[in-house]
Amino acid sequence: MLDKADFFSLYQQLGLKPGCTFDELKVAYRRRVAELHPDRRGADADPADAARLQELTAGYNAASAFHRRYGRLPGGLHQAPRAPMPRATRVVQPAAAVPARSGGGRARRWLGLALAGGLVWLAWNGGVFDRGGEVGGGPAPGRPAAATPSTPAGASTGLIGIGTAAATVRALEGRPVMENPQRWDYGPSWIAFDDGKVSDWYSSKLRPLKVASAHPPPPEPAAR
Fold it and tell me: CA-based angle 77:86:70, to the nearest 5?
């Protein structure tokens, strides 16, 4: 329907020019319909007005469909809102990609050693390696066994257990990333407290805690 519509003829009938707004088209169309409608003209109505009115309505419907599809009337220019200019971002070249100016082989060896040392330092301070020298959350060989729920562990054992005081936890694990009276977060790991003493925990391999297992052991059944 859009390909066969004569929009130029439509504008001429309504006294408009290409590039007019849709509101102007709507007002001119309604005014022209009132002039051609046989009910308004009565006995003075021209028999050809019915055909003109039908042609006018078909052209108006096609122009409305064109406007809905393209956001403008036929023959007009679509003025899209100007997008804000993106901010220029500064690209920092990684140190490993910067070629050495002199002594290529020696400089690369020193750079590799520096990077390796930095990774080891990050892994050590980020908690990837246990302070005992092994990876993961389990105790190192020769360490004392985890304290039972009835015997709180502390600084003397080097492990955190049920009932360990908050001050002992801080001395063993350091300052948490997030802290509130009920829970301390150490990255993906966490320790829960009840009245200032450890009541639960989760030790992640990404940041293991000084505990004997990932979760506290289940309580022993009461003796009958």
Answer: 20
> Cβ(14)–Cβ(27) under 8 Å?
no
For tokens 């070249």, what's the residue? 93
The tokens describing 25, both together, are 């088209």
Rounded CA gap, 154 and 160, in Å? Answer: 6
Name the E strands within the chain: 178-180, 183-186, 189-194, 197-202
CA distance 219 to 222: 9
Confidence band of 122 (pLDDT split at 50, 70, 90) = low
- Whole-structure pTM over 0.70, yes or no? no
Is the pLDDT at 29 greater than 80, yes or no? yes
- Kindly state the tokens that stand for 119: 């990774």
Sheet holding 189-194, edge to edge: 178-180, 183-186, 189-194, 197-202
The token pair that represents 144 in the structure block: 């004392």
CA 93 to chain centre: 26
CA distance 214 to 201: 8
Distance between CA atoms of 189 and 130, rounded to whole angstroms? Answer: 14
Contact call for residues 123 and 200 (beta carbons, < 8 A): no
**Angstrom distance (rounded) from CA 50 to CA 41:** 12
